[in-house]
Amino acid sequence: MSALVQGCNTTCVNGYYGSVCYTTGYYYDSRVSGIDYETRLGDEVVATGVTGDNGDPGRFLFVEGATVSFSLGGTDLGEAAANERVTLFDVVGITEQAIGGCDVSASLPDDGSAFRIVHNVAALLQTLDTDGDPTGTIDISPEVAALLENVSIDFDQPWEAFRADTDLQGLLAAANDGELFQAVRELREREDALRALYQGIGLCP
Questions:
Q1: Which CATH fold would you assign to the domain 2-92?
Q2: Residue 96 CB partners (closer than 8 Å, separation 6+)
């Protein structure tokens, strides 16, 4: 395929059966790069890649009416209707709101609510961020992503069970043993993860 037209948020390419126009979307905790994505229109795969692989943090491509799914190796991060902005709330299927307040000082639901998937995924993505500072963008290196190739982490579990999860702890041990971070990395606390998430998607200042 060859590039045909590129606008502010749309790229069209020539293919064997005519041109296809893709819209640019972004995956948000803050904008997250380094995770796999696949966009489908019905049963047809229309785009695949790694978010942010062109240097534009969090970027993925989609066509109107498509569904986009995200993953890290063998770990499913969920799917949602493809839009120019997709957040963790979208892939879980719940309304964006600052549960627990902007300072996350109130109690948090942990009893089977889909919200626990939001904070568990946020905590993992922020923990795997290359520089450990999720307040700008999140960048997961190929070396860290490769550690999840045959790992399927379960996000739908209470916080204490999640943080003790054998697969999760094995991932962190492997990353730390391989010195893939600047310093020894532990799982980010969910309150810290939620504060960063709320700021990253614009729910809180």
A1: Immunoglobulin-like (2.60.40)
A2: 87, 89, 201, 203
